[in-house]
Known about the structure:
This protein is of the alpha+beta class. It is 28% helix and 22% strand. It has 20 helices and 36 strands. The chain has a 9-stranded antiparallel beta sheet with strand order 6-7-8-9-18-13-12-11-16. A hairpin with a 5-residue loop joins strand 21 (325-327) and strand 22 (333-336). The chain is globular. The model is unreliable at 1-24 (pLDDT under 50). Its EC number is 3.2.1.-. It is an enzyme of class 3 (hydrolase).
Amino acid sequence: MKKILLPLISCVLSIYAPAQSNSHLTELVDYVNPLMGTDSKGSLSNGNTYPAIGLPWGMNLWTAQTGSNGNGWQYTYASDKIRGFKQTHQPSPWMNDYGMFSIMPVTGKAVADQDGRASWFSHKAEIAKPYYYSVYLADHDVTTEITPTERAACFRFTFPKTDSAFVVIDAFDKESYVEIIPSQNKIIGYTTKYARGKLKNFKNYFVIQFDRPFTSTGTWVDKDITRGSLKLLEQKNSGAIVGFSISKRGDKVQAKVASSFISPEQAEINLKEIGNRNFDQVAAAGRNIWNKTLGTIKAESKNTDQLRTFYSCLYRMVFFPNKLYEIDAKGKIMHYSPYTGEVLPGYMFAGTGFWDTFRALYPFLNFAFPSINKEMQEGLINDYKEGGFLPEWSSPGYADIMIGNNSASVVSDAYIKGGRGYDIQTLYKALQHGANNEGPITAVGRKGVQYYNELGYVPYDVGINENAARTLEYAYDDFSIYQLAKALNRPKEEIELYKKRSLNYKNLFDPEHKLMRGKNKDGQFQKPFNPQKWGDAFTEGNSWHYSWSVFHDINGLLQLMGGKKDFVTMLDSVFVMPPTFDDSYYGGVIHEIREMQIMNMGQYAHGNQPIQHMIYLYNYAGEPWKTQYWSREVMDKLYFATPDGYCGDEDNGQTSAWYVFSAMGFYPVCPATDQYVLGSPLFDKITVTLENGKKVVITSSNNDKNNRYVNALKFNGANYTKNWISHFDLQKGAKLDFSMSNTPNKTRGTSDTDFPYSLSTDPHSK
């Protein structure tokens, strides 16, 4: 596709690109392909993404909609028809969407329903950039263009000559409201559609301001249009349709669109984000914002494909969680509360699952964008105050999906890495509350907490699914609370309690198989045991995937497995074994299984989160060159800036964050510590401009596809043998000079003093 798109892209970008002294130079946003990962389906995910047109952490995104209303696969690359252009807040197809409505131009005949209005399109006549989208709708002979702000967007429709041009507003299939105001060339309304949880007083109010009068109006329900109607109250499968007379081919109809979760008046305030700017000015501003955000990390390489992949991943990382808060007429920060249904002061974010994103996405924010994470931490305080628990999956309120209590990691990592200026004491209380109580739904608080606190594990035979995975995650979450408790100088007995619980992972270690295994309430391991059985005691994986989920005490796990040699053998085995599986728990092959099977990397399942850190664990056993080999193998083999460019669900920035961190040459194996574990840098040079003004400059001499091994490393000019680097050392500004080789250096990073943090070797934890 890229060979087809490049001439078109360069044409369009010449309109929006700011003046450059060398106009032929590509700016960073030009490397991004929003279509990366869109060639997906329920049975096989190559990312399960959609072309998200928006601004970093913006409240609203826009996408072309190829799927039917309510279909989580709202845009798929293999599709050939577009049904509309949808305002979306969807974090993933599995979570689906909330607060959505769509806009669609049609010609020739007034038709409103989603099947009747759908038009053929081709990727050859489609341009997707983070700040701009354009596509030609063949059946209507119309080109649609979109450019966004955080809470608003500009549309531009280029019509043929016709007296039968229409724009359809679809408020989706729940109780919705639309009203046409011809005297103001305006449509207002709201949609109440959402997919997850139980929300109170939920409405997404919208306002659409056109730049010319309507020649006809109507409202519609299902396939029936009521001509001349101006208002439709709380109907299903409904919306509005307005007509225009186009005097010559190429004439444009423009619309400014904004929305609010607070009120129709707030939607009008949000429309002021556009102000008096025209379409091209909004697009140019969006381009500048993206260049600035992406420019936080400047990668340099002769390999253009790798740069495209890097910046396409970085683009994905800065969308979720998205802002749920708005700024009122007095300049105050306000939000709709999905927990109480009220409009309340302060920050709030939505659209992320901590089971995925605690691993690398939030650590990346703490590294490169701590100011936005400060807002997110303040939003978590409001989640707790209004809902009684911290969310583990928000979309936009509590969503009953996935496991763990990983808000503990998200909160602790921010504070441990220097986050300040918010009420950490309230957040600590929230962590304690979540760690010691079951929530109103399974995925909030800790399911099985009474068993866990009394026995040291969640039993296999008490009717709680994914029990071993829950135990392992709770143990790590307890470590996160332990770290925060120490930082806050909490009472000694409290600190010791969470430290003790963090060692609960040992209760599930089966010395016979050297793997984690479900355990019954009576203390006996569950039988029969198949380490390749997906699900059951584990979550979207098997024992070979989850046994490494001891982020905070890899040395303790290493000792349980018999020492360094046996530990490395177990790590090696993941790649040596065939990709066989037992899918009996699910009753069929789920997409995560299929994605592991077809990658030809043994039992390594990079397409899902539980095992993504495992490659970096060789650093804890004195064989860092194997981390260097496998991290580059994954980057080279499993990531591309193409529609099939991921090897599984992208998942709200996490799978992208693995790549971005790894390409820089390090990865946060254990959030809630200050360490990043070293790998193999991908680029000749990377310059990170930190928010404090300092720079981290990473160079790697003699670097190419074959020279993936680190022969030597200098940190600020001095030889450096450790297998990790400190967050705080980087924040001071740093220069890392890697010397690369095609053969491993088996003497560097092999001493115990070179190994990264483990609780069992921490002298301060004794």
